[in-house]
Structures are given as structure tokens and as C-alpha cells.
Specification:
By secondary structure, the chain is mainly alpha-helical. Helices cover 83% and strands 0% of the residues. It has one domain. The chain is globular.
């Protein structure tokens, strides 16, 4: 019981401190010369700062709480779990394209806005960097944080709480998507994969494939 309380208090503190730390890093980066950059470039800086805060929080907290750090920071990528996660990510994107985007225009508008924003990046270098950030970097750091730390820690403190809490926190992490069935479907899918496999490698594969399809394939299919 005492350990459960320590885990919950630590995770609450980590969740409360992550955003201020990320904002502090972002302000520092802007003061070093980032204020004159285009909006897409500033978004990339913000993404990196938030990612650094997420990974640092996960690394410190998993160590302090004596959680299984190899889950949050996988050194191996089991082929079967990774391929299964990638397949589920593609399936979620397909469901979103065929059903959610058809009957819930808000979800479609959200994805279209992100894709359009990506296309507006100034220059090929910025476009590639922002695309990598949205399609690969963000999924990796989010899965380390939401699944490798929060879901693992919450499940150890209160059985089954991690899956529900991680889904809710993941959805609220994406502004404007709270009423979007697409983001709820992805968040719940990722939480279920981790619950079943205990593999962050599998959830990363799912998230990366899903984001790549939403950013690049879906806009082409809906033109």
C-alpha cells in the first residue's frame, strides 16, 4: 500500500512538472535565436523540448520507482510484437479513414490541418525535419512517457488503472482532439497493445505507422 502511494505521488509530480520544464527549455531555445524562425520551425523546437522533458522524466522516475526500465527504453525489438503493433497501427488508420473521417468531420479536419501545416514548412530541410518529428520522434517519446512510465507505474500501483488513465492523458495531450473519435481510438488501441504485450516497442511501431499514414497517405486518398 505504501509503495502504491509513492508511485501515485511520484507520477502526479512528474505530470505536473513536465510541461513547465518543457516550456522553460523552449523559452531558453527561443532566446538563443529561435524567435526569428518560421512558425513550423518554432513548432519543431517546441516538439524537441517537450520530448526531452518526457524522456528525462521517464528515465528518472522509472529508476527512482524501480520500475522495469527496459519496457520504457527497449533495448530489443521483438519481431512478432513489433510487426503486430505496426499492423494494428495501419488498421486503426484504415478504420479512421473509412468510418471516423466519414461520419465525424471534426476528426478529418484535425488531420487535414496537421498535414497542411506540414506542407507549409519553409524549405525541404524544415519539411523533412518537421515530418520526422511528427511521424517518428513524437510517437517514440510519447510511448516512452505514456506507456513506459505512466501506464506501467499506474498499473503497478492500481491494477487496470494504467490503461484508462494513460488513454485519457494521451488524448488530453493533443489539443483540440478531445472530441475526436480518431484520437480516442488510437489512444485506447495503444493502451490495449501495451496491456497485452508489455512492449513499448510494439506501441511505438503502432504509433509511428499510424502517424505516417495519417500525415502522408490519408491526405492523398481524400483529395
Amino acid at each position: 500500500m505504501k509503495r502504491s502511494g509513492i508511485i501515485l505521488l511520484t507520477l502526479a509530480a512528474v505530470s505536473a512538472l513536465r510541461v513547465p520544464v518543457a516550456n522553460l527549455l523552449y523559452s531558453f531555445a527561443l532566446n538563443l535565436g529561435g524567435r526569428g524562425l518560421a512558425a513550423q520551425s518554432q513548432s519543431l523546437i517546441a516538439m524537441v523540448c517537450d520530448g526531452v522533458a518526457m524522456v528525462a522524466a521517464a528515465w528518472v522516475a522509472t529508476g527512482r520507482l524501480e520500475l522495469d526500465r527496459s519496457r520504457g527504453f527497449p533495448l530489443s525489438w521483438p519481431a512478432r510484437m513489433t510487426l503486430a503493433g505496426a499492423g494494428i497501427g495501419a488498421a486503426i488508420a484504415l478504420v479512421n479513414a473509412l468510418i471516423v473521417h466519414r461520419f465525424f468531420p471534426q476528426a478529418a479536419a484535425s488531420s487535414t490541418t496537421v498535414a497542411t501545416y506540414l506542407q507549409g514548412a519553409p524549405g525541404l530541410g524544415a519539411h523533412l525535419a518537421l515530418g520526422f518529428g511528427l511521424a517518428v520522434f513524437s510517437p517514440v517519446v510519447e510511448e516512452i512517457y505514456f506507456r513506459g512510465l505512466l501506464q506501467q507505474g499506474l498499473d503497478e500501483a492500481v491494477p487496470y488503472a494504467g490503461m484508462l488513465a494513460a488513454t485519457l492523458l494521451f488524448v488530453t495531450e493533443h489539443p483540440g482532439s478531445f472530441n475526436s473519435p480518431a484520437i480516442w481510438l488510437l489512444g485506447l488501441g495503444l493502451a490495449l497493445i501495451y496491456r497485452r504485450t508489455r512492449s513499448v516497442a510494439a506501441t511505438i511501431a503502432c504509433h509511428v505507422v499510424n502517424n505516417c499514414l495519417i500525415l502522408y497517405a490519408l491526405p492523398l486518398a481524400t483529395r
